[in-house]
Write a structure and sequence with these properties.
globular, mainly alpha
Length: 93
């Protein structure tokens, strides 16, 4: 997952941005790890394959839609995890 995201940043010339946000990814990695154990939605690889398909075809509209769906699913999983494990998310809810 992280490697795919890194490749996307590099492909659009935003390697410095990726380097800047990388230290903060530990929080996302924890969320993703918890999600895999609790929610068990493993559509990430499929999402990435579909996004890559759109990029290879230079279909920015489709890529944008697919990226939006990918991000929306992660937000939904996050909300579900907050309900399942409220003590893990101090100040959220």
């Amino acid at each position: 997952d992280n490697e795919f995201h890194k490749l996307l940043f590099l492909a659009v010339g935003k390697g410095r941005v990726y380097s800047f946000i990388q230290p903060q990814m530990v929080h996302f990695d924890r969320l993703r790890s918890l999600s895999l154990k609790a929610v068990k939605h493993q559509k990430t690889v499929s999402d990435h394959e579909n996004i890559l398909y759109a990029i290879e075809r230079h279909d920015s509209e489709l890529a944008g839609i697919l990226i939006g769906r990918h991000l929306d699913r992660h937000q939904g999983e996050r909300a579900e995890l907050i309900k399942l494990y409220p003590d893990y998310f101090v100040g959220e809810g």
